[in-house]
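Holo model, NAP. Inputs:
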Amino acid sequence: MSTTRKVAVITGAGSGIGKATALAFLKDGWSVAFAGRRQDTLDAALAEAGPDAVNGLAVATDVSNPQSVAALFAAVQHRFARIDVLFNNAGQNAPGVPFEDLPYDKWKSVVDTNLSGSFLCAQAAFRMMKGQNPQGGRIINNGSISAHAPRPDSAPYTASKHAISGLTRTISLDGRKYGIACCQVDVGNAMTGLAERMAKGVKQADGAVKVEPMINVTDVAKSVLFMANQPLDVNIYHLMVMATNMPYAGRG
Ligand SMILES: NC(=O)c1ccc[n+]([C@@H]2O[C@H](COP(=O)([O-])OP(=O)(O)OC[C@H]3O[C@@H](n4cnc5c(N)ncnc54)[C@H](OP(=O)(O)O)[C@@H]3O)[C@@H](O)[C@H]2O)c1
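Output:
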């Protein structure tokens, strides 16, 4: 079935920033594919859209698995016949253990999801955007303040998010000839399962533990929707949205 609505694919759409963004896109008149590993979580998130849920699709997907990503984009092609925006949002963190104690499997899981998963989804979206008529689209990568500065004991997360900045810049260059824009949102302290430890107290650069201010995911969703709604010849290359009083803006 084809659609005249704009079409977005959002990974990690069952919870947190991804869910808030997917619901905001639906409310704004987009068709949205919700992707994440847990089908029941995706179905519940989509149901929160009420009548707009008819314009959604929930596809259980592990972004770190090439076959699973191929199946997601095949389902999107089948249902919507195009893609206008990919929000590469699925992400994981690793336990904050000293660098020398970090198990390899924790490193690998974070990098496989945050970096390789973003690459796999971006490549599948890029191919669809290149081949469709009208050609083009936009890929929005979810980076982090950790794409700019580390927290203590955060090597896999920080390394993967710095790498996302490289992915954003590369796709933005390689996509030019096909009308594919690529940009990055860098979020600081949105209240989600992944970030709730910030609100409880998180280790600072000097070893002190501090409770940090948090923002609401709906405010992040508004920023992502704003980036998505630009005409394709306009690209908000980087957008940082963070809690006004978080320590990042001062000395670490
Ligand atoms: N919250 C913040 O302050 C903050 C700050 C900077 C950046 N971010 C970024 O924002 C993104 C979303 O995080 P969040 O804060 O909203 O936390 P969250 O609620 O934990 O969301 C992460 C989502 O990613 C999905 N996911 C994890 N591994 C996956 C995989 N292999 N394949 C597919 N989906 C996977 C999870 O769903 P399943 O478990 O069902 O797969 C979950 O819905 C992440 O990239 C994170 O790094 C968040």
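The CA atoms of residues 188 and 242 lie 4 Å apart. The longest strand covers residues 180-188.
Archived with the compound record.
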